[in-house]
Amino acid sequence: MNERSTPAERSGDRQDPDAETPQPPAGDDAVPRLGPRPIERPAVDPAVAAVFGRPGGIDGGFAAPRNGSTPPSRTTLVAPPPAALASAFGRPDPSAPSLQRPENGAGARGGGAHGDDAFWTDGAERDPWRDPESAAALGPPAGPPSRNGSAVRGEGARLSLREVLFGKRVDPKALIALGVIAVLVGAAGGLVGRFTAEGADGLTDPDPTITQSVEARERPPGSVADIARRTVPAVVSFEIRVGDEGGGGSGVIIDPAGYVLTNNHVVAPAAEASGAQIEAVFHDGTRTGAQIVGRDPKTDLAVVKVEVANPVVATIGSSSELAVGDGVIAIGSPLGLAGTVTEGIVSAVNRPVRLDGAGTDTNAVIDAVQTDAAINPGNSGGPLVDSTGAVVGINTAIRSLGMGEGGSIGLGFAIPIDDARGIAEELIRGGAVTHAEIGINARSVSDGTTDGAQVQNVQQGGSAEAAGIIEGDVIVRLGERPIAGADELVVAYREHNPGDTVAVELIREGRPLTVSVVLGSD
Predict the structure, then answer these.
(1) Which of 431, 433, 419 is nearest to 492 (CA)?
(2) Domain limits of the chain?
(3) C-alpha angle with apex 387: 385 to 393, nearest 5 degrees?
(4) Which end of the chain is more exposed for a tag (fewer CB within 10 A), N or C?
(5) Hey, is 349 helix, strand or coil?
(6) pLDDT 10s digits, 264-285
(7) Where are the beta strands (DSSP E) in 282-405?
(8) What pLDDT is recorded for position 108?
(9) Taking 60 as the threshold, does the pLDDT of residue 459 lie above it?
């Protein structure tokens, strides 16, 4: 480094750049020194120096006072700079050791010009940080040095369990500490599980004691369950196939020979078509073919025979003993559900109902037993039984609110068994039935006080003509039965046999009249 120059040197002659740098005298104790590089100062243009140079006789930066006067003494008080700034940017302490190589060569480790340098390391002159002419270059990224001064190494390969346990790669104390921690964690988990299990013990019992079941409740005679148990085996379901079409209904076995009583409209499609098949299905799933014995379209009854050994036969009761409010049970296959049992009461008796043939030859008016037991399509032909299990009617029709087939709304009708029994016996004996006939057509009328059946026309040669009944007469009673309409007149004379003589009360031109009629045959 250069020694500090005095103002005289700065204002005096410039050093010749070509002058030789003085070297210390060579000797045994002399140490070679690195001298400063010569300063290159370009030549100054005299014209420029004359314009920008210092005036003659002035060495400092300020001109001398004019007129030779001495400037007044001025004292400027300036606050001392902060210690940090003074230490960083202030002049060095003259007593501090110099950064230059000692001039007396005290620091040499060897003698002579070629001895080891006590200040510079080998190749210091080639260090880019000391060579001002070296080019800029990117070095390694800055980072904290490692503890031992070596470079930080990357992550090595992971150790296997064998290396950890037997390769002396892990401190045994660390393994022991890890084992103790694992034992403590396991013990804590065990305690938690123990407390949890003890809390759940209140919900379970290893030795439960379930209350012994009692015997099923007694089903006394006359209960619905008892009636169903005795009657359902005597009820069959019919499956009828006519070409690609099918139908169904129900029936009840009334004779040990295999005779089954049902409705005419159930089997009429098979009777009127060739190649039709009728199959009877019993409550246990047994199937067998069935043959039509006889049909009666005027009462909507029919008898079918099935070939089965020892069938269960239903008990036949009496419909004349029924009273409104008696409990009844309907059994059949509504909507194809075989063995269905529904319960209700007798809603009315002797209810004249004209039946819709539903595409068959049925043209019947029945003196029905009305019930609120649920009856649906498929119940037709099945039995209506009383509280003793005896058959008191054959379920035949329902009344619905909509058009066409509808469900039960509590208005079901059954043919009284007293009427059905006689028809069935005649069909079994001869395959056909004859009915009493009066020989008139009538319509229902009412004058506000009296209801009756008004004669519309009289059949020539019939029983009514022979008795003197004429058109316009209003029949109000036949035998012991009052007549409230045309349908009731039909069921009234069909209760008698052909050839019976009955008294007929009528109104003619406002006057009551009674005539005797000998019923004919259809």
Answers:
(1) 419
(2) 1-57+108-121, 224-430, 436-521
(3) 20
(4) N
(5) strand
(6) 999 988 888 888 899 999 988 8
(7) 287-296, 301-306, 327-332, 340-354, 365-371, 383-385, 391-398
(8) 46
(9) yes
Per the CB < 8 A criterion, the answer to whether 255 and 306 are in contact is no
Asked if the model's pLDDT at residue 315 lies above 60, the reply is: yes
CATH entry 2.40.10.120 includes domain 224-430: yes
Residue 53 CA: distances (Å) to CA of 49, 182, 314:
5, 89, 152
Residues taking part in catalysis? 265, 300, 380
What are the backbone angles phi and psi of residue 207, rounded to the nearest 5°?
Answer: -125, 70
Beta strand extents in 3-149 (DSSP E only): none
Half-sphere exposure of 280 (CA within 13 A, CB side): 29
Determine phi and psi for 36, rounding to 5 degrees. Answer: -70, 150
Contacts of 260 (CB under 8 A, 6+ apart): 236, 251, 252, 253, 254, 280, 290, 303, 304, 305, 306
- Pairing status of strand 436-437 against strand 440-446: unpaired
Q: Reduced to 3 states, what is the DSSP secondary structure of residue 482?
A: strand
- Comparing 85-89, 188-192, 311-315, 384-388, the range with the smallest average pLDDT is 85-89
Cβ contact 330:382 at 8 Å: yes
Q: pTM, whole model, 2 decimals?
A: 0.59
What DSSP assignment string belongs to 331-348? EE-GGG-TTEEEEEEEEE
